[in-house]
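Before any further analysis, backbone shapes were mapped to integers, which produced the following:

***
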Amino acid sequence: MVQKFTILFDLDGTLVDTAPDLMNAHNHVMKKYGHETKSTEDIRKLVGKGSASLIGRSVWGQAKKEFGSINDQAIKKEMVKEFIDYYANNIAIESKLVNGVLEFLNWSKKNNISMGICTNKQEYLSIDLLKKLKIYDYFEYVAGSDTFDYCKPDPRHLTNVIEIMQGDIKKSIMIGDSETDAESAKSAGIPFILLEDGYTEKKVSEIYHNHLIKDFVNIEEIINKYLNH
């Protein structure tokens, strides 16, 4: 039996532009707790590390707070819960697939390519988003930030999924939009396709990648090189 080729995808900023809905949830929490709100562009830069980091970088990155450290952590935890609850109930209002994604998923399916998700979004939120956008059935496995005891940039987040999908690391590739994705792919020894203008503060030149794309239009040309290798 010939080993299938495996493609692993990040979710936020790679397959789906989730920034508008994340921004709405973020601003809902900020207003409720009396903090400064943010724009969609600000949110895009914060998303890669997950929701606790997003809230943390927004609130605690501002001027020093009056709270003691114990109150800080308690309030932060409360805010993160509020953020996740609001976001879970409004997860696919303005979020949309990145250009060319649906066509590429169909092409990959026709070419017998195994596809999985490796995201630092919680697993249940990831699955719900994929189902609401009607692309869940394309994926054999969805691994979120809480699926294993570790997550990106730990390479095991990727290598475990490949193993679960009965793939081969030597016949796999990762597609993502941030240094978190890049670091995990590099450490795992997997080629990495970087999506430009991702959810990161880093410039393209600062992020490890083997290939650079603007969106998913014509990405088949890159994958074909690996299929025919």
